[in-house]
Amino acid sequence: MAKVESFDLDHTRVRAPYVRIAGVKHTPKGDTITKYDLRLTQPNQEAIDSATLHTLEHLLAGYLRDHLENVLDVSPMGCRTGMYMAVIAEPAPDDVRAAFEKSLENVAQHGEKIPGVSELECGNYRDHDLQNARAVARKVLDQGLIVQETINIQR
Ligand SMILES: [Zn+2]
């Protein structure tokens, strides 16, 4: 089976919430694609319920693109502790941290309508929790985002 870089991260030696470079790829045509680990809660201590994470996905998909150029994708982690974000080029971790912080502020202050929530636009449109999404964003901001270095598991 192919090796997956996120399985090498020592999840016991990170301090969430944080922003971390999870991987950098160079395409055959010379472009760079960077994958970021945008961690919202401490791994193995606290997970976000799926309705809340789903709403965070819908909101961050728009807000991160407002604050950062060339965002390819923002997707929730299966462990429900954060998001992965793929970006063209290699923005500095501190710029990504600032963009994520602004986006979470936008989420915390978001109004009543979640974008893309209808049977036409979403695959599980009933499964959302805006109130808790706002609360999670506020909590993350209160805790303070850091730039986390990657510490690999010693095997
Ligand atoms: Zn959806």
UniProtKB/TrEMBL annotation:
NCBIfam families: PRK02260.1-4 (NF002604), PRK02260.2-4 (NF002606)
Catalytic activity: S-(5-deoxy-D-ribos-5-yl)-L-homocysteine = (S)-4,5-dihydroxypentane-2,3-dione + L-homocysteine
Cofactor requirement: Fe cation
Native organism: Deinococcus cellulosilyticus (strain DSM 18568 / NBRC 106333 / KACC 11606 / 5516J-15)
Protein name per its UniProtKB record: S-ribosylhomocysteine lyase
E.C. no: 4.4.1.21
InterPro entries noted in UniProt: LuxS_sf, Metalloenz_LuxS/M16, S-ribosylhomocysteinase
Entry similarity comment: Belongs to the LuxS family.
